Amino acid sequence: MAAYYYLIASLPMLKFNDSPPISRDKFLTEAQKEVAQHPFAQLCSLFSDERAIDHPYLKEWDTFNEEVNSLLAHLRSQRLNFTHKEEVKRDPKLEAKLREIVQNPNPLEAETQLMQLYWERATELSRMKVFTIEVLFTYAIQLNILERKALFTQEAGNREFNQLFTTLQSIIKSI
Question: Is the pTM of this model over 0.90?
């Protein structure tokens, strides 16, 4: 099992409430210098839609994503009084947390809560691991979360909302 002492020690610390201290490209450039070809491909897959699942961590991460997506679809369909045909694997703690998120009336807060849930799960998956590829997987996932979170600004959201609202008003007036 390879250890990535220098790489992990040299990466800036990620904090959920901060901006990303390093870009994805910079992280991958540094990782490519230290990580063998196959683990590097696994690491890169965390930034793409084509996820590798040939590692226990990645399998668990993929399973968690599927559970969250399935439960969210189920809870949202319940909320809208639709029947959800797919059988849902239920983890009571996860379902309770997702129910709280789905019921949040503020979409930005709900999305932030969902990102926090993903952040915490990634941390759990690398707990008790030190200087291993799992730590780098967690770093990649959390960096991805911070990059996504940085895209959300209230000003831009208000601008987009006002633009959509104005467009809808003009469409309604023209009918």
Answer: no
